[in-house]
Amino acid sequence: MTEFVTEQNHHPWRKFEAAGRGVAVLRLEMTPDAADLASDCQFWLQKLSVWEQASSKETQQDTCLHLSRFQEFLKQMYEILKEMDSREILERFPKIGQLLAKTCWNPLILAYDESQKFLVWCLCCLMNKEPRTPGESELNFWIRGLLSHVLSAFRFDVKEVALFTESLGYEPVDYWPSLLKNMVLSLVSELRESHLNGLNTQSRKRIILPMCSVVSLWFRHLPSLEKAVLHLFEKLLSSKRNCLREMECCVKESLLPQAACHPAIFRIVDEMFRSVLLETDGAPEVLAALQIFMSCLAEALEKEHKQMKFSLKTYFPYGAPSLTAMLSQRPEAIPQRHRLQPLLHISQLLREAVEDHTHGSQRDPFESWFLLTHFGGWVDLAVEQLLQKEAEPPADLLWLLVFYYSPQDGSQQRAQTVVELKALLNRLLMLLRSDPLSAADLQKAAESPSADPRPPICRQLVRRLLLSLLLWTPEGHAVAWEAVTHMAHTDAVTHEIVGFLDQILYRSDHFCAEASRKLAGELLQGLSSGPARV
Question: Distance between CA 206 and CA 190 in Å, rounded?
Answer without folding.
Answer: 10
